[in-house]
Amino acid sequence: MGDSQPRRIEEFVAREIALALMLLALVLVQSALLLPTTLSPLLVLMLCRSLLVGPASASRWALYGGLSLDLMASSFLGTHTIALLSALLLPWWLLSRLSRSNWLLPILGVGIGATIYYAVLGLLTSWLVAPVPAQIYGLIVVLPGVLLALIPSLPVYLCMRWLEERRRGEVPIEIY
Amino acid sequence: MRDFARNRSSRLPRPTPYRSALLILAIFVVAVLLLIADQAGLLGPVRSQAVSLLSPVLQSLSRAREQLSGVSQGLTDVEQLNARIRELEAQVSQLESDRIASLALQQENQQLREQLAIEAKRPWKLLGVDVIARSPDEGRQVLLLGVGSEQGVEPGMAVIAKEGSSPETLIGIVEQVGPRSSSVLLVTDFASVVSALVYHENQNAQGIVQGRWQTGSRLSLEQVERSIPLAAGDVVVTAGLSAQFSADLPRAAIPKNIPIGIVESAQNNGHSQTAEVRPFVDPERVRYVWVILSHGE
Predict the structure, then answer these.
(1) ipTM (interface predicted TM)
(2) CA distances to A31, A169, B137 from A142, in Å
(3) Which among A26, A166, B11, B297 is least surrounded, fewest beta carbons within 10 Å?
(4) Which residues from B are below 8 Å from A28, CB to CB?
(5) Coil, strand, or helix at residue B185?
(6) Any idea of the CA torsion for B137, B138, B141, B147, to the nearest 10 degrees?
């Protein structure tokens, strides 16, 4: 009984390190293997995660994934984290009344979230690096980025929902 | 039920709405603090070390990408595919791996020959290197190289590349340098400004080449005086004056007369001329580049 609290903390730290390494690996693959497109797998995964389990869990993904993206993009550390955090909060708040089994949920959530992500990223880049004309940035970066994020949103959401339900189903505390 | 009880005792408490909001707020504050610290230059060494640690992984992934792209390219051509099938039928696996190894050596040989040819023509000392990663989003046009200060790379150095029969072309400037890695800001990025000379018949005029990728094109040549009328086909090269435009760059870090691109169309806007410039080499497609370590000027 005496050492249960330290063990829980160790487990928590180990889980966080594993999550950070997994997201870093995803960003490395995105940087080195994927063609230069505006598709961001991390963004889609994080938004689906937020819609499924809430923004608190997804915000940790935003921190680790955002810092990894900053390292690869040579942007100031924290830039992508702020953009990802902004992207996950509004869709979750707007769509929290929708059922998780509603197929519109991931499409609307990822659409709104991706738009906010690219908009915030553009604003931060304009502010910290150099100004970009908003209308042209919207057409060249935001629009293709949002459309590309929408394509995998439904299958990714369904897979994650299935995994989440399976994971919860195996834990007795959720059943009894 | 014993399992149930054990699971319950080993789980962390479920997050309440208050704790969730606190966590999100804490992460936001951490991100803002990191942003401020990085902008003040406090995190530069940490970032360099982190990128250097990741550099070997990125190089491995880059090699895997090269192999994958070779396979996909072959699949698009039916003749190549048939030849490839016949070849695979005729070869055992050992010979096949030898062939891939020899292809890599051949490519390296070709790259070194190109480097020697450039160094014979120009008084430059070059460092050839593979591109190991690109910017993962469209906010910035940046390449990551697997060489850094340990190999003599410094911020402000010019980075050139060749594509097919193109001349050796400026594709970017080294922006940040770690011990074994460096990032290159491409000339097509909107934050890139390079002084340039444009040759029209037997005359030349100075101007500025600015990146335009984020605004839908690639490069634009601006602030060219009216006395020399620009026309499609005029060649644009570096003027070697870029230190005037960015105080962070070492003086005269970009040598003169590195080809940049060719004028596609020109407009006269009253007091000066502007032109759309097509780069000789598409910076987004390059896989191998050279850093100009010294240029003897």
Answers:
(1) 0.82
(2) 19, 38, 11
(3) A166
(4) 54, 57-58, 61, 133
(5) strand
(6) 10
